[in-house]
Specification:
Shape: globular
Mean pLDDT: 83
Low-confidence stretches: none
Strand content: under 5%
Structural class: mainly alpha
Length: 160
């Protein structure tokens, strides 16, 4: 038990309370969205649902009924990050990662969410929570890919 606590203290030097509270809010948010809309929360359809405001194409029109909450959901993610930066980081957001790497990473994540028919919030939080076999397989693929990629990148000595 003490050894487990020491490992936790090493992995999370600032404690786990902020992660536990964040997880509670993510779960609560997913439950509220599902209770209010009967649709699993997920951010991967944000672009298509937003385009439904300005396009009549059938690909985008299918999201017209859920686009309002999807917009609020995505804006809430952005606002939450901004509030965190103001409260915990003196209003600044900094990273050691080069801007071009952030851009390329964002593009690859965007492509991956469309190919995988969902994002980690949709599959990981809602899909696994509802015991969806597709989501469980998706999350396992996400994790294995991330672990393998991290090991390769570390072995190559790549830094931000």
């Amino acid at each position: 038990m003490v050894a487990d606590l020491l490992v936790l203290a090493e992995l999370f030097p600032n404690g786990i309370s902020r992660y536990a509270i964040g997880g509670l809010f993510v779960g609560l948010g997913a439950a509220v969205i599902y209770a209010g809309t009967a649709i699993n929360a997920g951010a991967s359809t944000f672009l298509e649902s937003t385009l439904s405001y300005v396009s009549d194409r059938s690909r985008f029109a299918r999201y017209a009924g859920s686009r309002d909450w999807r917009l609020v959901f995505t804006l809430g993610i952005i606002l939450g990050a901004a509030v965190y930066a103001v409260v915990y980081q003196d209003g600044t957001w900094t990273t050691d990662v080069a801007a071009w790497r952030l851009l390329v990473g964002g593009i690859l994540v965007g492509i991956g969410t469309r190919v995988g028919k969902g994002c980690t919030s949709g599959h990981g939080v809602c899909g696994v929570g509802s015991a969806s076999k597709t989501s469980i397989a998706g999350v396992l693929a996400f994790l294995l890919t991330a672990i393998i990629t991290a090991q390769i990148v570390a072995a190559l000595g790549v830094t931000p």
